[in-house]
Amino acid sequence: MTDLIASSDQDLSIELNQLRSQLNSDSQTQQLKAIASLATQGELGLDVLIEFLMSQQTQTPTPVSGEAYRVLYLANLPKTQEFLETHFPTGVVPLNSEVGADYFPLQQELLQQNFQAADLLTLRNLCELASDAAVKRNWLYFSEVDRFPVADLQTIDTLWRVHSQGKFGYTVQREVWLGVGKNWDKLWQKIGWRSDRTWTRYPQGFTWELSAPRGHLPLSNQLRGRRVIEALFNHPAFSN
């Protein structure tokens, strides 16, 4: 029996070392797969994620560090809570704002992958950046986008991108848009906002999960046409 336990422990140690190596590879896909596997390995797997996240503390946040943070956050153990509160008290994404806006609620919805709630909150955040009038009407004029602070738009975008495994966010949508030669009809099809000549119906027609097409979210007020999202794509926060 002792030999069996020793053999099992050795096998687990080998597997954890393999996952640790995979986690530090150059392939984001392989890194995300390693995180998913480590999440099933109990506290030993969480220890590897803690070790990894410590190594990323001074690095620019990525979908990989975001997913590692999310797994530790959702584990909700005393060890993981203490680690995150000590080293990442406001998450892996700096919640920068030039106007004192609070993006912590958006971060929380994205950590829980409550993407529909996060989308509504994002629109609210954008309206707050625009004007009191925009908050009251709950939608934007494209002309209001130009006044948005760079830091705030970048914070919102980074939160979406980092906490969606790199699938969602304005920079992702913009990349798809550039990839189809700025052809709006092709973009709508590519990100799942239209099928042939039929616009996707809100909210039931949209996919509020990671299985959605790349760039599917946030909706960027798309129900009011292309002017708002075009202004976002051309904003200095993303165009430089």
CATH homology group of the largest domain: Gun4-like
* CATH hierarchy class name of the largest domain: Mainly Alpha
* Rounded Rg: 20 Å
- Straight-line N-to-C gap: 63 Å
Class from secondary-structure proportions: mainly alpha
Q: Please describe the biggest sheet, giving its number of strands, its sense, and whether it closes into a barrel.
A: 2 strands, antiparallel
- Roughly how much helix do the residues carry, as a percent range? 55-70%
Count of DSSP strands? 2
How many independent structural domains? 2
CATH second-level architecture of the largest domain: Orthogonal Bundle
Give the low-confidence spans: none
Strand order of the largest sheet: 1-2
Strand content: under 5%
Order of helices and strands: HHHHHHHHHHHHEEHH
The CATH topology of the largest domain turns out to be Arc Repressor Mutant, subunit A
Net shape: globular
Average pLDDT, to the nearest integer?
93
Please report the number of helical segments: 14
